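Known limitations

Structure tokens in this collection are predictions and should be treated as such. Users comparing against experimental data should check residue numbering before alignment. To illustrate the layout, the record for Antitoxin is reproduced below. The input appears on top and the generated tokens appear beneath it.
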Amino acid sequence: MTHEPLPTPHEVPVSEARPRLAELVDEAAGGSVVYLTKHGRRVAAIVPADLPEKAGDVQVRALARQFAERHPALLERLRDA
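Generated tokens:
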């Protein structure tokens, strides 16, 4: 199973984002992640609509692998039940 790479993010100050909102939303719809900054600090993000689900799936799979590595006996008992 292959995973799509996560998009490379870039940053835009909120003051610049306001007049460019439609453009930034189009970028997100195309797969980009845009972090909005205030005083150089990230405060929000415009992301592709499916990115949170994809990221969540990746995290769940990683946690499941960690659990399986740490508790093989428990998983074996669950398989036999």
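For this record: Strands lie at 9-13, 33-38, 41-46. The chain is about 50% helix and 20% strand. Please report discrepancies through the issue tracker.
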